[in-house]
């Protein structure tokens, strides 16, 4: 079983991966760590940490795809989280692989961002990882990122979970979905 978690930055991907690790006792891979490891190991790797999500995603996806396939072939479980898993990448996987993947694409509604930008989104962006830099995006920019990400998810026909009002309550639906998919896979 492979759990893929993708969302715009500061949406709770790493926190979700940490909680799933604790629940299922399977490791997780932060794509940010892979990105920085590759960049620090070879600054001529084809991207910089400041490049946009699609540029970095296109460079990292072949590696991530190989990790996913290898884990599935070996019957190993892993959680992979990061904003660089773009929805259209999943179409590249053969059904023998994709049926063993639980994809989770998360986002915030415009309403949620407007009501919770400072008090919840910015305040909790360090819940698991230490981010030394302040939030640089404006509310308007964050709304645009989430709107575009949602459109990409819908266009790629992947399940998209949108937090509208109450993060703590609505995120439980995502965990219920993952639990149900895990049970389904256990029967395969």
UniProtKB/TrEMBL annotation:
<dbReference type="InterPro" id="IPR027417">
    <property type="entry name" value="P-loop_NTPase"/>
</dbReference>
<protein>
    <recommendedName>
        <fullName>2-phosphoglycerate kinase</fullName>
    </recommendedName>
</protein>
């Amino acid at each position: 079983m492979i759990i893929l978690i993708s969302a715009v930055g500061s949406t709770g991907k790493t926190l979700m991966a940490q909680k799933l690790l604790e629940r299922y006792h399977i490791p997780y891979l932060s794509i940010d760590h892979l990105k920085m490891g590759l960049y620090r190991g070879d600054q001529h790797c084809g991207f910089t940490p400041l490049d946009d999500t699609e540029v970095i995603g296109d460079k990292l996806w072949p590696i991530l795809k190989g990790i996913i396939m290898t884990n599935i072939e070996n019957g190993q479980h892993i959680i992979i989280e990061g904003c660089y898993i773009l929805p259209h990448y999943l179409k590249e996987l053969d059904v023998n692989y994709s049926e063993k993947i639980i994809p989770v694409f998360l986002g915030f509604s415009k309403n949620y961002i407007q009501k919770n930008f400072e008090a919840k989104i910015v305040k909790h962006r360090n819940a698991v990882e230490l981010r030394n830099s302040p939030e640089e995006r404006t509310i308007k920019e964050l709304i645009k990122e989430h709107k575009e990400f949602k459109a990409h998810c819908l266009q790629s026909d992947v399940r998209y979970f949108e937090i509208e009002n109450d993060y703590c309550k609505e995120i439980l639906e995502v965990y219920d979905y993952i639990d149900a998919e895990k049970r389904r896979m256990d029967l395969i």
